[in-house]
Amino acid sequence: MEKKFEIPSIVRTLSLALVVVGVVVYAAGFVTNPERTWANFLLNNIYFLGLAVGGAFFLAIQYITQSGWSAQFKRIPEAMSMYFPVAAIMFLPIILFGTHSIYHWSHTEHIQHDALMVHKSAYLNLPFFALRYVIYFALWIFFTQLLRRWSIKEDAEGGLEYFKKSEFYSRVLIFIFAFSFSLFAVDWIMAIDAHWFSTIFAAKNFLSAFQHAVAIITLILIYLKRQGYFPAVTNLHLHDLSRYIFILTIAYGYFWFSQFFLIWFANIPEETVYYVQRMESFKALTLSAFALNFAFPFLFLLWNKIAKSETGLIFAAFVMIIGHWLDLYEEIIPGIAKLNPEIQISGFAWIEIGGFLGFAGLFIFVLARALSRANVIAIKHPYLEESLQHDAQ
Question: How many C-beta atoms surround the C-beta of residue 148 within 10 A?
Answer without folding.
Answer: 21
